[in-house]
Design a protein that fits this description.
single chain; mainly alpha; 3 helices
């Protein structure tokens, strides 16, 4: 499995250690919302994978997410 897929399917946090919200309420480091950051530890593996998928979309399409 390539590194990207492994990261997407792992339970590890996508936190980059920047931890600052922008004007839209997304972290400028990991692109998660405050709700996603706060609830990360209670999310199921499937929910974590979905959050990581959405954060990738936010990175690539910032005006839509």
């Amino acid at each position: 499995m390539n590194n990207y897929l492994h990261q997407m399917e792992s339970d590890s946090s996508p936190c980059k250690g920047v931890c600052r919200l922008d004007e839209t309420g997304k972290c400028v480091g990991c692109f998660r919302t405050l709700d996603e950051i706060t609830n990360w530890s209670t999310f199921t593996k499937h929910q974590k994978i979905e959050v990581k998928r959405v954060t990738q979309l936010r990175l690539q399409l910032p005006d839509f997410f």
